[in-house]
Design brief:
The protein is α+β, with helices and mostly antiparallel strands. It is 65% helix and 16% strand. The chain has helices spanning 3-52, 60-92, 100-114, 135-151; strands spanning 96-99, 119-124, 130-133, 158-165, 170-176. The strands form 2 sheets. The chain has a 3-stranded mixed sheet with strand order 2-4-5, with helices on one face. Helix 1 packs antiparallel against helix 2 (60-92) and helix 3 packs parallel to helix 4. The longest helix has 50 residues, at 3-52.
Length: 178
């Protein structure tokens, strides 16, 4: 019943409210994606039905824009869901020491097979590439960077993956034309 006890209870209440708010924010992305899927499905289904009906030709541009808009919204919701899954994977991943150079080299060899219409170059300037982290998450990150580089570069172009290091950090760079 003293002032210090009251202060301690006030801080405890404040910390509990902050924890609840943080939990809410952490799950908000997944909740929004889930809540928006049903209305988007209703709009998409209605649009499908409208596109099957005969209509005046002047409506075609509007239907086309509606389709593009629903496709964009669906892609955004997919990205939100994927981001939530990645955040959960990062939070639950056990860290290990691994060779970043070995992981990147293996990935680049695989990309050469998958994207045969691109030329992949690996420039490894590291002297030591042991890091504490997750090799799987690094590979997923590089997959996304490479997918982006392939999407925004012309066929038969070059994509360069460069690893550099100094005493404190290791750098990874993906370069493409496009």
């Amino acid at each position: 019943g003293d002032e210090i006890g009251d202060l301690a209870r006030s801080f405890t209440d404040l910390l509990n409210r902050l924890r609840e708010y943080t939990e809410y924010l952490t799950t908000l992305k997944a909740k929004l994606a889930h809540e928006l899927r049903t209305p988007l499905a209703v709009v998409s289904t209605s649009l499908d039905n409208l596109e099957r009906e005969s209509h005046e030709s002047h409506l075609s541009p509007y239907l086309s824009r509606l389709r593009e808009g629903t496709d964009r919204l669906d892609a955004i919701l997919g990205a939100m869901s994927e981001a939530t899954l990645i955040e959960q994977a990062v939070a639950n991943t056990e860290l290990e020491i691994f060779s970043l150079s070995a992981v990147i080299t293996s990935c680049v060899h695989a990309y050469r097979d998958v994207y045969s219409d691109r030329v992949f170059e690996l420039v490894d300037q590291t002297t030591e590439s042991s890091v504490l982290g997750s090799a799987d998450l690094v590979a997923q990150m590089l997959d996304k960077l490479i997918d982006n580089a392939v999407s925004f570069s012309p066929s038969v172009s070059s994509i360069t993956v460069t690893l550099t290091s100094n005493e404190k950090e290791i750098g990874l760079r993906v370069t493409n034309t496009g």
